[in-house]
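Appendix B. Raw example, untouched.
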Amino acid sequence: MHETVNRIGRMIIALAGCILLHTAPVIAVEADAGLLRLVGEDAGLVVEVTGLSKELPKLEKCEVVKRLQQTILFRQWKASDDFGKLDASRTVIEKLVGISLRQMVDDVFGQSFVLAVYPTGKDETQAVLITQARSPDTLKSAVALWNRIERSKLKRATFEGYEYVRRTRTGPAGKPMPPQFYVVFDDVFAFSDNEAAIQRTITFRGIGDSLSTDGGTDLEAAKSRRHFLLSPAHQTAREELSSQRFVSLHLNPRAWDDRVDFGADKSKIGVFIADAWQRCDSIAFSLSVDERGILVEGVAHYDGRPNESVARIPAANIADSESLPAFLSRVPRRAIAAVAGRNDLADVARALIGWIPDEKQDDWSRLRQLGRGLLVGFGLFDDVLPALGHNWGAYVVASTSETVDQSPLDSVIGVELPPPGQVARGKITLRDGVDNALETTLRLIAPVGGAETDGKFADVETESTQSGTLVRSIKMGQSLQPGFAMTTDQLAIGTSPIAIKEFIGLDANNSLATAPAFRNTAKRYFPTNSQLLYVNVAALRGVIDEHELLLSARLSGSKEVSPEASAKRVEMLNDLLRAFDTVFVAAHADRRRFRLTWGITANPADGKASR
């Protein structure tokens, strides 16, 4: 695969020579989505870029990109020798052809281009790059100038009625370089270092021409040599990707099956991965840009066979989960980061247990028995997890403690509990078991944190909220006091009683789910995903600014890091974080697909995200 990457790189660099021109007037034409008709259905990897001439200006106007250009790292790179060499090369090229580099890119790549890779053997691949220029004259001038600059020797050949070119050059010390091949169809140019790849491209061009001119006399031939647009897996994936995309990547798992030795790993995890791969019909990604940020979407489709392990990727199998996680209504607006989902936690646990190697089963059984003892006879996987609700989540907030040594951050984990008394064994309820297990755990971990006062280990503290909920916690040193609480419908585990009580008493109208900035972002980028990681970078910057000295001191606690270096690291981190206001990863999974959305955004209005 490494050699394939190198070959593709050489192809792109070589084809870049085509942009050294502009002898013909610019003729605007519509981007030909039909470039994919020149790619076979059996391609293993296809990268498609459309409308580059329109998207590059959008990228420059994107708030994230504009802010990144103001960061220290970017300014340092612009002042480096590497950037100076690139800029000098650009100047030489522009003087040679008399136009800007941007115009060159627009002329040859601005409409659309496609890179296709075909696995052809155990260790071999064929790759072809296909691009659509502004006009046939533009493309003709480009190729002529490219050949003249590199002093190439050209030999023409014919395949299925189309002429293509074998191109050879002489490298340093007169050493012959590997041949290259290309073919021109009006304003379309296909290039490869593999002759068979060019001939394959010609074949698909011929099928398209014959079908369009004689009403389908070669229909049977077309059926046996289907182009990529006819692939059902590709069509399904294409429908789900953003309509605003300008870059898309499609992976065909079936084309790579002979490269993967599914029998090599006999472990349960290996079998799970092999099963997931074999049931995956297609994998696709897209990239899109708007004025606020950059969005990457991915989707994988499966064959949909029920009751199989692949349905547990990533174990989000709640049938009505095409909506944002309900836990977000319990996250404070001031949260710096939040993760939430809608999952059958017992189902997740069963999948994880299934991966445990056989030789570890005895250890696992002993651990389960220990857990049953802590839970007063209830089993974690047999009783507790099946009784929990499907909505869960966790979040991080800035600490409100005024203690100097207190950690600047607090965190809370929450899961849904069954109603009081619903799950019981005699007079002992499931809640009693959970309470005992968590309180015992607090006592066990307290010594680890040095929770000691006057020679005695700290005891569990219990306080009651106005609603009557008991919050249990234990002091661990000077900066940490973890604890837990159980309401009528929630179990909350947090790093401090203050954070736990905020979770318990939160008004839904003051939650992250109702914050205008979050709602607008969710509606725009991930309205139906049931799993979410959301980071309010603007709030994180505020914490770093407020606790910069503390963070620097903790970083310099290591003998290998000086106070000056620590302060510089904190400064560099905060500078980079100023480039965006939010980061999110949203996902959804069901029996047939796994969809992922990742993005970074910034508020163009004032450079800050409202909390």
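End of appendix B.
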